[in-house]
C-alpha cells in the first residue's frame, strides 16, 4: 500500500491544516479548505504529490451559540484508526529538553476519478511521550505560543524526517503558509559546507541547494498575521535542533518570523491573488513574489443538482472545468430548477434547526466566514433603517455563519453584535445565524443562496474562496473589490462590485453596498428573471471555468514545481 506511493519522486505539500473530508475536523477555515481542494485536484490530475499535516485529533473546535450569540467551544474528537492506517514509522525531535516522538497515519485521499494522494498525519499521541507531549498534535491552532512553536517544529522538522524514514523521494517541498517553515533549517542540515571551507561568520550551509527544493505560498496580507516567536522561547524549545544564530540570519534579528524564514528558503514564492502578490511585494521588499490566484475544487463544491446537469450536458467538466464555457447549452429553466432545489435544501435545513422560517421565493443573501474584524461582517447592518427600506420594496432574507477563534474576543463580540442586529430586524428581514459553520454547511449555503456577499476591509482579503464556490454554482457575488474579486468581477455580469479597488474607498462601502442591492441586484432578481438566469450562466462560464483548483494546480506544476 505504502509501496504504491514511494515508487516515484513526489512534491511534498506541507500544511498545518488540510480539509480532507467533511467528516474530519482537521481544518479551521479557508486555508485548510484550500489545502484540501489542492490535494483533491492533485488526485484527480494524478499529480505525484504527498501531503503532510498534523492529525489534530481534537479538531479545531465545535461552535455552540446561545440565544444571545455567545460562543462556547467543545472539542471535535475523531479517531484516526477509523479513517487512516497507522504506519510503522517513528521519529523524534528534541523539544524543550525532551525527546518528543512522532508517529504517522496514512490517509489515502481519493479523487473522484482514479487518482489517490497519500496524506501523512503526524501524531504524538504515543506511549513513549509524556501526557503533555501526547497532546501536541491534538488541537489545531490551540494553546499558547510555546505550544504553537512546537507544532511548527513537529510539522516542519518532524514531517521531513517522517518522509525520509518512510522512503519517500521528494523533488520539491511546498510550504502552504509559513507554519511549516522550520522545514528549511532542517533541510539545510543535509547540505553543510566542509568546516575548513567556512570562514568565521559565514553561513555554514549550502542555502541555494535548499532554496532550489522549496516553494512557498503566503496567505496573509497583514503584518501581525505572520507567526513570530521571541528567540528566548526559540532557544528553549528548538535550540537543541537548530542553532539560533542560523535562524537569526534567515528569520529576522528581532524574533523568528516564519514567513521571513520561508521567503529566504524558497526559490519560488507566490501570493494567492494578483492584488495579494502586490501587497506582499510591498510588505516584503526585495523578494520576487509571483501570483497564482486560488481556486476551488469543482466536484467538491458544485451541488449535486447542478453536477447532474453538467454531467448530462457537459460531460468531462470534472476533469476539465473549462468545458463549462459551453454552459449555454443547458436550458435556462433546467438551470433555474436545479438552483431552486439547492435553495430548498438550504431552507429546509434552516427551518428544521432554527426558529426562523425562510421562504423559497424570496432571495437569500448568504454571508459566512471567519468572524474576525477585517472581514467586517457587520458592514451590511451599518444602517438598519436603510436596510429595512430596501427590504420593504424588495424583500430578502439573510443567512449568516462563522466561527471566532476561541481567543479572539473581538470576533466573539462580533457574533453577539450580529445577534442583536438581527433581532432589531425581526418582522422586517428574516436573519439566521447558522451554528458551527463548516464544509457541510458551506456546501448548502454557497449553492442555495441567490447572492453571495463579502465585505472585507481592503487590502486584507488575500483571496477569499467562498465566492468562487458560489460562482461555480451560478450564484452572483456582491463584494468589496479586494482579493480574487478584483479579477472575477464583471459588473452586472458575474455580480457587482462594492466600491472600487482603492483603499480610500473603505469608508464608503456601506453606501455602495446598499445602492447595488437596491438599484441593481434586487430589481434584477424580481423584475428581470431571464436576465438573472443569464447572469447565473455567466458566473459559471467566466468564473467557474477559471477559479478552480485544477487550473491552480496545473499552474503550480508548471511554474513552481517543475
Ligand atoms: C470556503 C470556506 C472558508 C473560506 O471562505 P472565505 O470566503 O475565504 O472567507 C471558510 N470556512 C469554510 C468552512 C469554507 O468552506
TrEMBL record:
Query: Where does the source fall among the domains of life?
Result: Bacteria
Q: Where are the transmembrane segments?
A: none
Family matches, as InterPro entries:
Agluc_phsphrylas (IPR011834), Glyco_trans_35 (IPR000811), Glycogen/Maltodextrin_Phosph (IPR052182)
Task: Please provide, alphabetically and separated by semicolons, the GO molecular function terms listed in this UniProt record.
Answer: glycogen phosphorylase activity; pyridoxal phosphate binding
State the SUPFAM superfamilies in the record.
UDP-Glycosyltransferase/glycogen phosphorylase
UniProt record, GO biological process: carbohydrate metabolic process
Q: Which family does it belong to?
A: Belongs to the glycogen phosphorylase family.
Could you identify this protein by its name? Alpha-glucan phosphorylase
Q: Which organism is it from?
A: Thalassolituus oleivorans MIL-1
Taxonomic lineage from the root: Bacteria, Pseudomonadati, Pseudomonadota, Gammaproteobacteria, Oceanospirillales
Amino acid at each position: 500500500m505504502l509501496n504504491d506511493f514511494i515508487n516515484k519522486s513526489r512534491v511534498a505539500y506541507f500544511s498545518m491544516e488540510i480539509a480532507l473530508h467533511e467528516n474530519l475536523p482537521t481544518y479551521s477555515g479557508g486555508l485548510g479548505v484550500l489545502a484540501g481542494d489542492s490535494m483533491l485536484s492533485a488526485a484527480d490530475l494524478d499529480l505525484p504529490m504527498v501531503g503532510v499535516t498534523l492529525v489534530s485529533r481534537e479538531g479545531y473546535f465545535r461552535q455552540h451559540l446561545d440565544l444571545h450569540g455567545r460562543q462556547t467551544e467543545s472539542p471535535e474528537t475523531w479517531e484516526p484508526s477509523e479513517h487512516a492506517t497507522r504506519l510503522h514509522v517513528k521519529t523524534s525531535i528534541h523539544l524543550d529538553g525532551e525527546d518528543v516522538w512522532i508517529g504517522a497515519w496514512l490517509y489515502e485521499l481519493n479523487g473522484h476519478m482514479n487518482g489517490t494522494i497519500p496524506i501523512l498525519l503526524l501524531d504524538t499521541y504515543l506511549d513513549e511521550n509524556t501526557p503533555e507531549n501526547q497532546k501536541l498534535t491534538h488541537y489545531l491552532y490551540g494553546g499558547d505560543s510555546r505550544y504553537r512553536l512546537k507544532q511548527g517544529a513537529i510539522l516542519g522538522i518532524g514531517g521531513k524526517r517522517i518522509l525520509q524514514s518512510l522512503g519517500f523521494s521528494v523533488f520539491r517541498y511546498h510550504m502552504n503558509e509559513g507554519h511549516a517553515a522550520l522545514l528549511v533549517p532542517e533541510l539545510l542540515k543535509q547540505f553543510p559546507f566542509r568546516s575548513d571551507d567556512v570562514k568565521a561568520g559565514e553561513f555554514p550551509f549550502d542555502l541555494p541547494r535548499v532554496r532550489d527544493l522549496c516553494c512557498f505560498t503566503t496567505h496573509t496580507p497583514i503584518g501581525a498575521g505572520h507567526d513570530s516567536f521571541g528567540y528566548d522561547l526559540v532557544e528553549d524549545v528548538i535550540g537543541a535542533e537548530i542553532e539560533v544564530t542560523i535562524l537569526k540570519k534567515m528569520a529576522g534579528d528581532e524574533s523568528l518570523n516564519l514567513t521571513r524564514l520561508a521567503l529566504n528558503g524558497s526559490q519560488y514564492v507566490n501570493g494567492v491573488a494578483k492584488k495579494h502578490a502586490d501587497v506582499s511585494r510591498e510588505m516584503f521588499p526585495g523578494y520576487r513574489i509571483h501570483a497564482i490566484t486560488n481556486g476551488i475544487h469543482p466536484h467538491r463544491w458544485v451541488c449535486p443538482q447542478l453536477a447532474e446537469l453538467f454531467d448530462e450536458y457537459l460531460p468531462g467538466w470534472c476533469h476539465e472545468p473549462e468545458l463549462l464555457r459551453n454552459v449555454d447549452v443547458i436550458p435556462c429553466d433546467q438551470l433555474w430548477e436545479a438552483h431552486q432545489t439547492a435553495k430548498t435544501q438550504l431552507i429546509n435545513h434552516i427551518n428544521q434547526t432554527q426558529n426562523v422560517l425562510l421562504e423559497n421565493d424570496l432571495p437569500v443573501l448568504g454571508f459566512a466566514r471567519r468572524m474576525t474584524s477585517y472581514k467586517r461582517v457587520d458592514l451590511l447592518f451599518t444602517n438598519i433603517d436603510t436596510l429595512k427600506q430596501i427590504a420593504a420594496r424588495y424583500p430578502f432574507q439573510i443567512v449568516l455563519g462563522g466561527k471566532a477563534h476561541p481567543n479572539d474576543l473581538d470576533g466573539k463580540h462580533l457574533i453577539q453584535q450580529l445577534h442583536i442586529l438581527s433581532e432589531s430586524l425581526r418582522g422586517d428581514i428574516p436573519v439566521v445565524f447558522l451554528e458551527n459553520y463548516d464544509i457541510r454547511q458551506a456546501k448548502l449555503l454557497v449553492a442555495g443562496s441567490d447572492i453571495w456577499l463579502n465585505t472585507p476591509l481592503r487590502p486584507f482579503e488575500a483571496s477569499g474562496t467562498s465566492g468562487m464556490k458560489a460562482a461555480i454554482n451560478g450564484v452572483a457575488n456582491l463584494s468589496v473589490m479586494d482579493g480574487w474579486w478584483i479579477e472575477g468581477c464583471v459588473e452586472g455580469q458575474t455580480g457587482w462590485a462594492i466600491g472600487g479597488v482603492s483603499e480610500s474607498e473603505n469608508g464608503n462601502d456601506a453606501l455602495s453596498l446598499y445602492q447595488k442591492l437596491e438599484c441593481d441586484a434586487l430589481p434584477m432578481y424580481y423584475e428581470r428573471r431571464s436576465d438573472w438566469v443569464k447572469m447565473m450562466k455567466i458566473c459559471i462560464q467566466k468564473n467557474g471555468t477559471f477559479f478552480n483548483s485544477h487550473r491552480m494546480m496545473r499552474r503550480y506544476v508548471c511554474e513552481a514545481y517543475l
